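Researcher: Next entry in the queue.
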Amino acid sequence: ALTAAGMLMWSRGRALAFGVLIGLATAAKLYPVFLLGPVFVLCWRAGKWREFGTATLGAAVAWLVVNLPVMAFAPEGWKKFYTFSEERGIDFGSFWLIITQRTSESIEVSTVNTVSTLVTVLLCAGVGALTLMAPRRPRFAQLAFLVVAAFILVNKVYSPQYVLWLIPLAALARPRWRDFLIWQACEVMYFLGIWMYLAYTTSGDKHQGLPTEGYQLAIALHLLGTLYLCAVVVRDILVPERDVVRRDGSDDPSGGVLDGAPDAFVLGRAARPSRHAQPEAEAPRVEWGAARGPAAD
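Model: Structure for this entry, 297 residues:
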């Protein structure tokens, strides 16, 4: 709820309110902090550094106001979430579980933590590069969905609430029933699969529930469904004419100060005439990738 309210404030151009709400949301659960990444690269491309700084400062102050008293008076309780997340082993719903079950070999928790973190960072860097190189600046909701999905896909556990993080972002990133229902059908199959698998492993009756191989298929369906929706969103970014939100001439209804703003910095294929709705005065745009390096036009 705090994340949704924060995104609403950003869409209305209220960067400080957005930052405060994202800071409070991060105090409740870690994933909302990932939304500052898309804001960073979008503001970089649009040259909106003041708004990004305001949002980041608001998020940091709000998070500290909530956390510092608990850190001071109950430090062990405060850090329990972080230590538990670090020490927790491979669990239900992750591709890591498929690997361990198929190979019958355990993987050190430290190895999983390191690899998951590195892959998440690489995927987020890829989203950042996509943002700066896309022919048209992506919408905020598209990037928010991609970075949270990246975190979920490589995590060592897939908790039931994770899909709830993605649903509102998916509705904003790709508002088409067909793609949404394809993804949700995979999620429904996964949740049926996990309960049937638990029945198989706890009932003692091997004729009841879903065996291990069936549960692995359910995990694969969940992963493929999420990857499918990610692929469709990436396609919309690379081919903005396919983005249903922009078919009526809109730029980024959830972008706030980014909506209709000219580009200030682009890379690669984006270093061409902008397809944005042109404002009255174009800001200087820095282009990289020309034969003689950066040039401002």
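Model: The chain has a mean pLDDT of 90.
Researcher: Noted, moving on.
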